[in-house]
Amino acid sequence: MEELEKRSRLAQARALVAALEANNEAEYQASLNALAASQTQPMFEEVGRMTREVHEALMIFATDDRLNLLAEDEMPDARDRLRYVITLTEQAANRTLALVEEAFPVADRLIDRAERLHIELVQIRQGHADNTRLVDVITELTAYLDSVQKNGGILKTGLTEIMMAQEFQDLSGQLLLRVIALLETLEGKMLGLLQKIHPISAEKPAAQTLAALSQGMGPAVPGAKNDSSAAESIKNQDDVDDLLASLGF
Amino acid sequence: MDRNMKILVVDDFSTMRRIIKNLLKELGFTNIEEADDGATALPMLKQGNFDFLVTDWNMPGMTGIDLLKAVRADPALAHLPVLMVTAEAKREQIIMAAQAGVNGYVVKPFNGPTLKEKIDKIFERVQG
């Protein structure tokens, strides 16, 4: 404790004792308040300083264009992109499943046909045991039909595996839906905060700079905000060819 | 087990409905209908004379666990065998489903033999 502060406190304590001894109630209360204030004043000052700091930080936070951009454009854009991932994986999975569904009965028919022919040929062989040429051909054919049945089974197992692998679409989709819900919550809270401390200006900063574009934007997302604003996305190869043609390529 | 029994497959992901439907077809079941959440499934169950319900848990609208509870609470459906096929795999959830009266529980990712085994078990118990 500093010497000056110590002397001040001693003086306050002595004044308190003196007032108490003199039965001076008013003086006693005043001394007591002075002593208490010396304890609480630094705390109030600290709280005041912290409040100012929080306020200043919020003002900087709210006037930061980057934050507006994040809450108004980039979060919804991220949501759209994730939704589009779900759509793309769903399309891919459905395409695969459709092909598997087509291939399954083909494999079934192959196996079934091979089995029936096998039985018939064995019966024919029994009736023509003396014809060695015929017996040789039939033996070779039945061996082939055996392998058709066996390979048909392998094919079906593979098709089932391919089908089950499409399960990833459900699982990854569920995970993405959770992230989308989280982004929605964050976006709502950020917008709420921005509105409270600094109503969003009508003028929005440009969403995309050439620098951002040169970093790469990722695949085009139909309907995504960023794709219709600063940098227009091209839909297909024909558009690319048309654009290049218009540039003289 | 009656291969002609009427089965309702409930899942919000069409991909998963398609996979389950194909697996059931491979097992010889052909009388299969689909719904994308509990709210769509419940009226179908109430009208449709279904023999078996296969449902996901996590779906928008009405979840699978709520569908299960609604089925058990309806005297006409209370005895319908219900198999859950879900990615929800917390201990408490499996207990919750068991307490709600589920007949079988398959965790995603799963495979054909697992599905077959659980279905066989359910109908052994139901018929036995």
How does this structure look, described?
The complex is a heterodimer of chains A (249) and B (128). With 249 residues, chain A is mostly helical. Chain A has 3 domains: 3-59; 67-204; 206-249, no CATH class. Chain A is built from 8 helices and no strands. In chain A, helix 1 crosses helix 2, helix 3 (65-127) runs antiparallel to helix 4 and helix 3 (65-127) packs antiparallel against helix 5. Chain A is elongated. The mean pLDDT of chain A is 84. Chain B is an alpha/beta fold and 128 residues long. Chain B has a single domain, classed as Response regulator (Rossmann fold, 3-Layer(aba) Sandwich), CATH 3.40.50.2300. Chain B is 47% helix and 16% strand. Chain B contains 5 helices and 5 strands, in the order βαβαβαβαβα. In chain B, helix 2 (38-48) packs parallel to helix 3. Classes of the chains: A mainly alpha (249), B alpha/beta (128).
Short description:
The complex is a heterodimer of chains A (249) and B (128). Chain A is mostly helical.
Number of discrete domains of chain A: 3
Number of strands of chain B: 5
In the CATH hierarchy, the architecture of chain B is 3-Layer(aba) Sandwich
Q: Total domains of chain B, how many?
A: 1
* Number of E-type strands of chain A: 0
* Tally of alpha and pi helices of chain A: 8
Report Rg of chain A. Answer: 41 Å
Radius of gyration based on Cα positions of chain B? 13 Å
Relative helix content of chain B:
40-55%
